[in-house]
Amino acid sequence: MLRNIFGNKNEFDFKIGDVVKFKNGIRHHFLKTLDISDWHGRIIEVDKNSVGLELDSLSLREVTDELIDIYDERGEYPYLLTIPVEDIEPSEARDTDEETEKMQDEVMEKIHQKEGIEKHEIEYNKWKRHFQRSGKFMDMDKSMRDNSDFVMETFYNYMYNYEGKKPRNWNPVAVKEVMLNWVPNKISAEADLFKTYGDIVLCFMEFLDERQYLKTGKLQKIVAKFKEETYTRSQDSSSWGFAKSFMMGAMDAGVDMSDKGAMDKYLKQQQLNALGQLGGSERKKLEENLNLKPVDKRQFRGIWQNQKVTVKYDDGNVLENVKFKEVKEDLYAGLCQLVKK
Question: Which of 68-72, 167-171, 265-269 has the lowest mean pLDDT?
Fold first, then answer.
């Protein structure tokens, strides 16, 4: 949820928990007309040339509706900023953690009301925000903190959408089903995420109990009991659904999951591979359904491996003067066409 903006090295050695203020003349990077001189905040992340900053309650009172709309469109929190260290300087706290937390809730309530989010989801999002600014959260290692948004979001979604349980109705049976079925068989992710999935959920549940938001003692026992099995099952491909099998195959093949073109290309390649396992009428029928045409490989005769060619892909992308051996498999699979040799 933080935006990276890089600046120059600062003379101050900032650390997590420090209170800082913006220097005179600094304007908001999303709304250049908004002067944020003297806004204050607490540092929650430190990089080489920038810091992640949580605005204090007094600064949040100056966050305009226009700025809230901008953050809402970006899917980001208006109280979190990543800013270059050259824009800030040390200061003293002007409020308490409790006051900051309360003001954050007021700002987010404006956004949730606008979006028409259900009350149980609003409450859960509040619990999640409070957890992510707690000492318990900060005590987790960075990789777990980075994965916490994804873990808590998927856990909530599976409990509600697959088990029909709102947070205040969570029970051991539903938690067990999520940990042993939905999480390992639905989520497509690297193994490291599954190794810590249960630990993150457990830490979150401990926080909920400590803050008296929700009694989670029985739920914690279930998560602790099955967290290792969650990981084991997540690596067992025999129980994966089609969607996860496809996504994990794409990840293993090094496909950029955020590149639609690359994903489409991988899907088509898998379809073509499936054709190779069929014959006769089954193959012809699948070719027609996929709108695929057999590739006449005679057109490639006489082209040597290092010969430069030009090819055009279905998405319109053209590669010029590329070695034949680098695109041969795509040509044979019908993923691109030979334009020039």
Answer: 265-269
Distances in whole angstroms, Cα of residue 147 to Cα of each of 67, 106, 142, 198, 291: 27, 26, 9, 12, 40
The whole-angstrom separation of Cα 210 and Cα 207 is 5
pLDDT reported for residue 141: 93
Phi-psi region of 302 (alpha: psi -120 to 50; beta: other; left: phi over 0): left
d(CA 115, CA 70): 14
- Residue 9, number of CB atoms within 10 A of its CB: 10
How many CA atoms lie less than 13 Å away from 152 in the CB half-sphere?
Answer: 25
Taking the alpha carbons at both ends of the chain, their separation in whole angstroms is 48
What residues form DSSP beta bridges with 55? 41
Beta strands in the chain (DSSP E): 19-22, 40-46, 50-55, 80-84, 88-90, 308-313, 318-323, 336-340
pLDDT, tens digit, 9 for 90 and up, residues 199-254: 999 999 999 999 999 999 999 999 999 999 999 999 887 776 666 665 666 666 66
